[in-house]
Write a structure and sequence with these properties.
The chain is built from 3 helices and 4 strands, in the order E-H-E-H-E-H-E.
Length: 79
């Protein structure tokens, strides 16, 4: 699984509880949210913070794509 802009990671936790592998890659454009995820979810080892990094990552996955790629809308409490 790859998370696109997961903000604080709540949806990721729900998907993991539903049986999806959390993967190791997150695309998060917010520096504040990236720092929070790094502290709270150390199992993520690859953080992509620019869209061109995401494009390169997507090309790398062509042979063995993730089972799920998702994006999260902003939480009402954050927006």
């Amino acid at each position: 699984m790859a998370a696109i802009i997961p903000l604080r990671g709540g949806k990721t936790i729900g998907l993991e509880r539903a049986g999806f592998d959390g993967g190791d890659t997150i695309l998060e454009l917010s520096e504040k949210c990236t720092r929070s995820l790094q502290l709270n979810r150390p199992e993520y080892t690859r953080y992509l913070t620019e869209l061109d990094e995401w494009e390169a990552w997507a090309e790398e996955q062509a042979e063995d794509p993730p089972q799920l790629v998702y994006g999260s809308p902003p939480c009402q409490g954050v927006t």
